[in-house]
Each structure stands twice: as structure tokens, then as C-alpha cells.
Write a structure and sequence with these properties.
The complex is a heterodimer of chains A (107) and B (352).
Chain A lengths: L25 H19 L4 E6 L3 E6 L4 E4 L5 H9 L8 H10 L4
Antiparallel strand pairs in A: 1-2, 2-3
Chain B lengths: L7 E8 L5 H9 L7 E5 L12 E3 L4 E2 L10 E2 H15 L8 E5 L7 H9 L7 E11 L3 H7 L1 H8 L3 E5 L6 H14 L5 E4 L7 H6 L8 H8 L6 E2 L17 E8 L5 H15 L3 E8 L8 E6 L2 E2 L3 E2 L10 E8 L3 H12 L4 H6 L1
Parallel strand pairs in B: 1-6, 1-7, 2-3, 2-6, 7-8, 8-9
Antiparallel strand pairs in B: 4-5, 10-11, 11-16, 12-13, 12-16, 13-14, 13-15
Helix pairs in contact in B: 4-5, 9-10
Classes of the chains: A alpha+beta (107), B alpha/beta (352).
Chain lengths: 107, 352
């Protein structure tokens, strides 16, 4: 699936693929979905955004100004995020990388 | 069953004008192993193709609303593939087990790849197989220097076929091979000349989805352990006007297991912002699972569904990711991915 315009068939995005076969169990799928939300929020909060699971079917992205977007999968989150904040979300931005390096401990 | 994956594999044969695509196709189709192959061509060229499942494509391009450039769907290809599949299901044509699409010499191959990978109906019946790019030993270097399409065709290849080696000099062939290996080190290079046999198994059949070829294919990608760059080598003079001067390939290696969730978030973000400049990404990831590695494979903004290998291809358990990029710096990508791994939940890290 295209990570830029994930509109081409919302279902079955590659980011929904579990890392282990046991993730086919519903409880594991749910836990993995929530884990995706937690990790995404660790990035998104640096842009003033919060992601939440929406009924296990979509994700809800909310900006600090109250703007809300519903998205199908994580591949679409960055396009929605950029619409919300009006600027680029660039993982190669040296300031973003430095912020993560300084404020997140090594796991 | 079309193949072990349950999908009909689609091979794209691309290459610059006059580089020998149709001749290669003609020789491949003469092999009995490919008798159940349907063929879509852009034009009926000078080289006659005599095949019972041959269709012509018209150049109709559809840019999806709100779509990015690499998700330009080739409307003609989509319609032709859907039609072929429907007629196959109705029993009107032979039950083909493979489809080969030959592009025009000037085509950017990415819209063709994105049509196969992302078109909502097609992706339930077809899957992308090896992309085969022909490069002419006589004119290939000139094309790579002057034509961006030629560079892109070589960069997205799974197999590079060097043609006309029988009429080129050995130094010409060696220089072309060197340039191609810096541009796309993950793709094996094969020479084709009238006196050399064409192996359909190596070119088309053995791919990431083939049970026999899967581990071998991944091992081939990972043969690149040192950075090979079109601009970075001290041994090569580089003309900045050259179209492949900004395209380079490198392999990142991570000794510690990578958190799959953090990796997915990082890669979607990278491809969203820089997908136009990530021509290919291929990798084998240790995600801390006790089984084999997870294989990832993408072209620009498009990522294939990840696959789990049943076992590691060697004793090395580190994650290795090959990037073929335009302008992006290896250092920035490596540092960014390492930083995002700090976002992995501690429990996940403890588990690995």
C-alpha cells in the first residue's frame, strides 16, 4: 500500500502485519494495535498531535487546535498530520532526531 | 493455483529504446517452461512476437485524485489485466499462470509497478514478480548518463540483463557492469547474447515469493555489505550533470533486534516525506521473534506485504536493509532509524 496516498484500498496495509505469527489471536491483535498507537504518539506529540484507536477499525488524529481526522491505517497518518499542522513531518529533520536522541532513553 | 503464493506473478520487462527487450522476450517465450504465460506489450515492434496470449496496451494514464505521482495507475494496464483475468476465469482463454508486461523504452516503470501492487482489484489476483531491465552494452552508459528514465529502469530492477555483449568490447561491458553495480548492487547482472542461453528460471521464476528462491533471493540482496555509491567512490570521476550521479545504494546493518512497530512507523514516515527519492528498499529484519527474519520490500511509496522467512539464510542475526536512494544521505537515514528505535516500548525491548 502506498504510504503517501493510502486511499488505494484502505484495508490490508503492510503496517498492520504482525511481527509474530501468534498475533493472529484477537487479543494480540488488539494489543499490537494499541502499541502502534503508543509508538506513533511518541512521534506525533512532538508535532502537537495525538492519535487514538477508534473502535478498533480506524484511528483518530487530533490536533492541539481541536481538528480531528479519521484515518484507516498508519500509512495515512503522516498525510493527515501534515494537513492538521500545515507543515512537513520529516523523520530526517535533524531537530526531530536530536530531540528523540536527547529525550528518549535507549531501550 | 497460479503459483505457490496463490497469485499470478507479473513480470515487468523494461529497458531503454533498442536495448533488446523484445528480443529477450522472444527468446524467453520460446522456452516451454513459459508456455502458460500471457504477454502485454506497448507496441508491436520490429521484432515479431508470435504468441497466442499477446495483447497490446494503449497509453492511457490515470492519476488518482489525491494520489501521489508514483501511484499513477496505468488505466490501460489495469483494464487489460482485469480483462485478461475475467476471460481466463470464463474459460475463454487459456489458464495462464504468469503475465509478462513489456514497457516502452521511454517509460518510467514505477506507474506500471504501482498498478500491479496497488490497484484494488488486481492486487487480489496478481502479484509483482521480478522486474527485468535490459541494458545495451553499446549504448547503456550513454543512456544512463543522459536519460533519467534509463537510470530509474536500472534502479528498480530485480534482474539486470546486459544485452549485445557479443558486439561490445570487454572494457565497455566491464564499465557498464561497474556503473550498474553501483546503481543497483542488489540486482544480479546477466549477459545475453545470441550464443548464450536465457534462463527463465533465474530471470523470472525465482523470486521472493518462490519457496525455492526466497532465501537465495534475500541472500543475494544482502551480498552488499559495503556502500557502493555513484558519487561517493574516490575511484570514479563523477559528472554532476549525469542522471545517476545522485542515485546511490547502501546497506544498513543493525546488530540489535529492531522493534517492528517503531520500524513501521519510521518507514511510513520516511516514505511519506521522501518516497520519491527512495527508489527501492529491501531488507531482512530481526524483530526479536524466535523464528526467521521479516522480509520487507518496497518501491518508492509502495511497500509489499512483509513476509516471514521460515529460517535465517546464514548465522548472522543482524538486520540488514538495502536502500537505493536519490540524494538522501545514508548518515541521516541511519541516525533517524536508530533514534526511532528509542521509541520502542521497553517491554518489547526486554522481550527480545
Amino acid at each position: 500500500m502506498c504510504s503517501l496516498c493510502g486511499v488505494l484500498g484502505g484495508e490490508g496495509d503492510w503496517t498492520d502485519t504482525p511481527a509474530v505469527a501468534a498475533s493472529g489471536v484477537p487479543a494480540m491483535r488488539r494489543a499490537q494495535r494499541l502499541q502502534r498507537v503508543r509508538v506513533a504518539n511518541a512521534v506525533l506529540r512532538r508535532f502537537g498531535l495525538v492519535l487514538a484507536d477508534w473502535e478498533g477499525a480506524k484511528y483518530q488524529l487530533r490536533s492541539s487546535t481541536g481538528r480531528v481526522e479519521l484515518i484507516d491505517n498508519l500509512a495515512q497518518v503522516w498525510q493527515a498530520a501534515e494537513r492538521c499542522i500545515g507543515r512537513a513531518c520529516d523523520p530526517l529533520d535533524p531537530a526531530l532526531i536530536a530531540d528523540i536522541e536527547q529525550n528518549e532513553r535507549m531501550s | 493455483m497460479p503459483d505457490q503464493s496463490g497469485y499470478i506473478p507479473v513480470n515487468v520487462i523494461t529497458g531503454f529504446l533498442g536495448s533488446g527487450k523484445t528480443t529477450l522476450l522472444q527468446r524467453l517465450l520460446a522456452n516451454p517452461a513459459l508456455k502458460d504465460t500471457a504477454v502485454l506489450v506497448n507496441e508491436f515492434g520490429e521484432v515479431g512476437l508470435d504468441h497466442h496470449l499477446l495483447r497490446r496496451l494503449d497509453d492511457e494514464i490515470v492519476l488518482l485524485q489525491s494520489g501521489c505521482l508514483c501511484c499513477t495507475i496505468r488505466g490501460d494496464l489495469s483494464a487489460a489485466m482485469n480483462d485478461l483475468y475475467a476471460r481466463r476465469e470464463r474459460g475463454e482463454i487459456a489458464e495462464f499462470r504468469r503475465l509478462v508486461v513489456e514497457t516502452t523504452g521511454l517509460a518510467d516503470p514505477v506507474p506500471i509497478l504501482s498498478t500491479v501492487m496497488a490497484e484494488p482489484v488486481l492486487r487480489h489476483h496478481f502479484r509483482l514478480g521480478n522486474v527485468v531491465t535490459t541494458v545495451d552494452a553499446i549504448n547503456g552508459l550513454t543512456h544512463l548518463t543522459a536519460q533519467e528514465e534509463s537510470v530509474k529502469q536500472a534502479a528498480v530492477a530485480d534482474r539486470l540483463v546486459i544485452t549485445k555483449t557479443d558486439i561490445a568490447s570487454a572494457p565497455e561491458v566491464a564499465e557498464l557492469r561497474d556503473r550498474l553495480s553501483r546503481l543497483n548492487p542488489a540486482a544480479p547482472q546477466l549477459e545475453v547474447a545470441p550464443h548464450l542461453a536465457v534462463d527463465p528460471d533465474l530471470l523470472l521464476t525465482r523470486d521472493l515469493y518462490d519457496v525455492r528462491g526466497k532465501v537465495e533471493e534475500v541472500r543475494r540482496w544482502l551480498a552488499i555489505e559495503t556502500e557502493k555509491t555513484a558519487e561517493g567512490s574516490h575511484h570514479h570521476h563523477v559528472d554532476v550533470n549525469r542522471h545517476d550521479a545522485r542515485i546511490h545504494a547502501f546497506c544498513l546493518r543493525f546488530a540489535q533486534p529492531l522493534d517492528w512497530t517503531a520500524f513501521g512507523i519510521w518507514l511510513t514516515m520516511l516514505l511519506h516525506r521522501h518516497g520519491n527519492d527512495v527508489l527501492r528498499v529491501k531488507g531482512m529484519l530481526n524483530v526479536g521473534d524466535t523464528g526467521g527474519p521479516v522480509v520487507i520490500h518496497g518501491v518508492q511509496h509502495l511497500v509489499h506485504p512483509p513476509d516471514h522467512l521460515p529460517a535465517w539464510p546464514d548465522d548472522d542475526r543482524s538486520s540488514r536493509i538495502v536502500f537505493i536512494v536519490r540524494t538522501l544521505s545514508r548518515e541521516a537515514i541511519e541516525r533517524s532509524l536508530a533514534a526511532f528505535m528509542r521509541l520502542a516500548p521497553p517491554t518489547a525491548a526486554a522481550a527480545v
